[in-house]
Every structure is written in C-alpha cells, then in structure tokens.
Amino acid sequence: MPDYAVKYWQETLKKMTETEQWKNALKTNGWDNIYADGDEFVKFLEQENESSKALLDEIGMLKK
C-alpha cells in the first residue's frame, strides 16, 4: 500500500476511535478501548504471537 494510503487510513481510523459512536460500540460489545497503528501495532502483534507460542508450548500443542 502506498505511504499516502497508509497515512490516510491511520488518520481515519484514529479519528473513528474518538467518536461517540465508537465509544458506544465498545460498551455494547464489551470491547477494550485499545488502538494502535504502525510500529506500535507490529509490536503488539509480536507480543501476542509470543504469548500464543508460550501457551501452545505449555499445553504440548506447539509444533516445532
């Protein structure tokens, strides 16, 4: 995706998370109010991947 499109979507999604409609959707669906993009989102995904690996290893389901 071109840089200008990435920038557009990051800005648009960030603005969306600041609306009352989004806050209502969080409450209605029981979602956590977490938003991350760019490097912050990549770091989150890496942490989740490591957590999943650790859990799968602990229960003997990690394929090595």
Task: Give an overview in words.
With 64 residues, this protein is mostly helical. Helices cover 70% and strands 0% of the residues. The protein contains three helices and no strands. The radius of gyration is 16 Å and the shape is flat.
Please provide the count of β strands: 0
**Number of DSSP helices?**
3
Q: Count structural domains.
A: 1
Q: Biggest β-sheet, characterized?
A: none
Mean pLDDT: 95
What is the molecular shape?
flat
CA-CA gap between termini: 33 Å
Rg computed from alpha carbons, rounded to a whole number of angstroms: 16 Å
Flag low-confidence runs: none
What sequence of helices (H) and strands (E) makes up the elements? Answer: HHH
Helix content class: over 70%
Q: How large a portion of the residues is in β-strands, by DSSP E?
A: under 5%
Structural class: mainly alpha
Oligomeric form of this entry? single chain
